[in-house]
């Protein structure tokens, strides 16, 4: 059923019965079946073995292992409240950073941006997020951790569909921009994108390129757009 239109309640199956697949946005486990919880197209990331429903939804509903960008809204002794654009704020444990201890942990402030992953997503509980990666084990103090506080740069919002498109391995606009200019980017499946480059003006140009690319389907025209904005 990959790339086919489904409706709420439709059973979605993978091509191989014994294949292990992680389900994400728009899918729920119901016994031995995987069912759709919303209207959209079934998509699959072969490399990550992830299955989800793709549509034009603007409201973010957390799913386990989603990468998100959140804003700290409350500080407490051993945890933070963080806005990830979901119906309820998520909880971030103060020790949920690689290498963090009670004596040595990040000191986040209200308003700080954090790149993290969803570890608990349940309609009966508050979402929980973590800055500990399952695969990338750089400690937070090195400044090289995958999930961490995002400093400087610029954050903007986009559709959930576009955010997931940017995370694909064959995303043309990111590969194109990378040929002309070095930059850092963090992509949240909650529709938040953070960009940072060596100069503010370049960060703005990159942001405009990304936003404009949503309305261009031709790769040649997309690269022309990038060149024009960079040459200004």
Automatic annotation (TrEMBL):
Alphabetically ordered keywords of this record: Cytoplasm, Exosome, Nucleus, RNA-binding, rRNA processing
Protein name: Exosome complex component RRP40
Domain named K Homology: residues: 153-198
InterPro entries assigned: Exosome_RNA_bind1/RRP40/RRP4, KH_dom_type_1, KH_dom_type_1_sf, NA-bd_OB-fold, RRP40_KH-I, Rrp40_S1
Family stated for the protein in its record: Belongs to the RRP40 family.
Subcellular location(s) per record: Cytoplasm; Nucleus, Nucleolus
BP GO terms, sorted: CUT catabolic process; exonucleolytic trimming to generate mature 3'-end of 5.8S rRNA from tricistronic rRNA transcript (SSU-rRNA, 5.8S rRNA, LSU-rRNA); nuclear polyadenylation-dependent rRNA catabolic process; poly(A)-dependent snoRNA 3'-end processing; regulation of gene expression; TRAMP-dependent tRNA surveillance pathway; U4 snRNA 3'-end processing
Gene Ontology cellular component annotations, sorted alphabetically: cytoplasmic exosome (RNase complex); nuclear exosome (RNase complex); nucleolus
Pfam families on file: KH_6, RRP40_S1
Organism, as annotated: Hirondellea gigas
Gene3D superfamilies to which the protein is assigned, alphabetical: 2.40.50.100, K Homology domain, type 1 (3.30.1370.10), Nucleic acid-binding proteins (2.40.50.140)
GO MF annotation terms: RNA binding
Domain of life of the source: Eukaryota
Coiled coil: none
